[in-house]
Amino acid sequence: TFQLGAQAGFLRGITNDMQISIADNFYLGGPMNVRGFAMRGCGPRNEGNAIGGNTFWALALHLYTPLPFRPGKNSFGELFRLHGFINGGNLGNISLQK
């Protein structure tokens, strides 16, 4: 079984002079979107701390397959599958002000 996941986002205030809180920024990293990074560990940083961004994209491709050795019918081994995956993404800040 193949599974493809895609996410994207762009954050902008209603008016050009509206400030966006750091708590509202997007964050990437961790086991749910970009594996291999600490939780919220992907993207811009300030003094070593993640500050998030106003734009992001993330892609994931998963492959699920039965175990290579065939357990008997209705056995405990049928509850398990092999899972191969690849994740990628980017997080940044884009300004649309002139």
UniProtKB/TrEMBL annotation:
Where does the record locate the signal sequence feature? Answer: none
Which UniProt keywords are present, listed alphabetically? Membrane
Where does this protein reside within or beyond the cell?
A: Membrane
Say if the entry is tagged with keyword Cytoplasm.
no
Q: What InterPro entries does UniProt report for this protein, alphabetically?
A: Bac_surfAg_D15 (IPR000184)
Predominant subcellular localization, coarse grouping: membrane
Q: Where is the Bacterial surface antigen (D15) domain?
A: 3-93
List the record's Gene Ontology CC terms alphabetically: outer membrane
Q: What is this protein called?
A: Bacterial surface antigen (D15) domain-containing protein
